[in-house]
Amino acid sequence: MIRILRSGPLNTIQDLGRAEGRRWGVSRAGAMDPVALRTANALLGQEAGEAAIEVAIFPFELRFETDCAVAVTGAGAASLDGRAMPANWAVRASAGQTLTLDQGPRGAFSYVAFAGGLDVPERLGSRATDLKGSFGGAGGKGLSTGQTLALRPSVQESGVPVEGYGVSFSALPARRMGVHGETRVRAIAAAEWGAFTDEAQRIFEGSIWTVSREVNRTGYRLSGPSLGMRMPLELLSHGLVPGVVQVPPSGQPIVQMADANTAGGYPKIATVITADLWALAQARSGEAVSFELVSWEEAIGAARELDRRLQDIDNALRAARERLQAAR
Amino acid sequence: MNGEAPRPHSQEARISLLGCEAVLFDVGEARFDDLLQRRVWAACEAAAALDGVREAIPGMNNFSVSFDSGRWNPDAIASALRGIWAKVEPAAESGRTFEAPTIYGGPAGDELAELAVRIHLSIEETVRLHADREYVVAAIGAMPGFPYLAGLDPRLSWPRHASPRPRVAAGVVMVGGAQTGVMPCEAPTGWHCLGHTSLVLFDPERDPPALLAPGDRLRFIVEDIRL
User: Fold this and answer.
1) Which of A7, A12, A276, B20 could form a disulfide with A299 if both were Cys (CB 3.0 to 4.6 A apart)?
2) Which of A124, A236, A255, A304 to mutate to test the interface with B (most CBs of B within 10 A)?
3) In this predicted structure, what is the pLDDT of residue B2?
4) What's the whole-model pTM score?
């Protein structure tokens, strides 16, 4: 069991989300940065989609009530009983120890995964918290101070070495950076691309966009030059997926994120590709972002490349655990 | 995606990518039409049965299909969907009928008076235009259990807000563009608020969790009109 000592309402339990809730209007939900979630679970040698705590509000603090291997990935700077942990690191924590996450130099979300996983019930096929529908995770809400969470017993020994181990930044998928240091995300043209003016099409790709303060798990509103349409368009509601870049009449784009509405009516200029959406999710308010249009083939290639990278990390960590165990 | 199959129907369908693993099939008709929507439901059912298709979800005059990119590429799925659309017959009329007891106006329906002024009708006449009819659930989406209801009197049509209102409560009855709907949970929306119903549209403990499904019918029952 763990006890939450400090938290904000936007720290939630997340896994890889609900694959098939769209027929009921249920968002996918799941980790904003699935790359970091998968890395945390790989460090513990467990299923990639095991539920973990997604930390969006720092500082976040918990106390272990039982011994448990724990992995921390993503944005925050973690320490165990005041001793700093390297980034993307797993350790065996003992009952009574306190894990603290402070805001790190970069990124918006951290993930804290536990060997065995969090013992919360599945709802509609996932343990992810759906903040909109108020279900999943721990009672459909963010974690609050004083709350306790049960852990499922580890099926097998996690193999995490006593001294801890981790993944180096160079081994992890990196965000793509543009010439101005901005996070560069690839996108595929969407249904209304051609309905935007030539100038809007040019500035969509050619501008540096700023992540506004209006960001949440549903969408990131970006600010920059206004994207105009050849003529105003009032569309009937249609399906959306995470990554869709909508342009409301204000002309300022909104990127649908993990809790994307399953349908909407604003014109869509593009869709951020799956392989880059995690990097956009990790961009904080005030940070710069730019778009690069790619073909479907490039998008699929990027998705497969990302999967390969994560598989390589998983394999390397498994080999490292076996080596360490053999040496013992 | 440009391989054009012969189409026995006048509208030209538009197929676009929705990211890497989904397409949006827009039947190419700007006006919502009940018979057309019943073809959309039938096409969804046929598309969902294709090998390597994960989900086919109806929108309004459109549907989206998510597919396995190892099995389908955009051209192949587009031509498969065009083939389905060319042949599909409207789904038979089916579905259940629900009643939504509604309090029009009041704090939850704070745009009712503005709508009445906008369309030069009294508040009572505006409410009657909204309540005195049966709506068809054309699609479920946007939010958990949210029904897109067809059958709104065109006089009540009202373009959405340029920027969404940050928080609207569950149960709020709204219009947005040419559509009407009920808020299933507290969330932001660009639609206009006309009233409030006690009908619970979404419950994750229920199976299925959404009360309504495409093809169902909904009638708003006037419980009260408040100013």
Assistant:
1) B20
2) A236
3) 40
4) 0.92
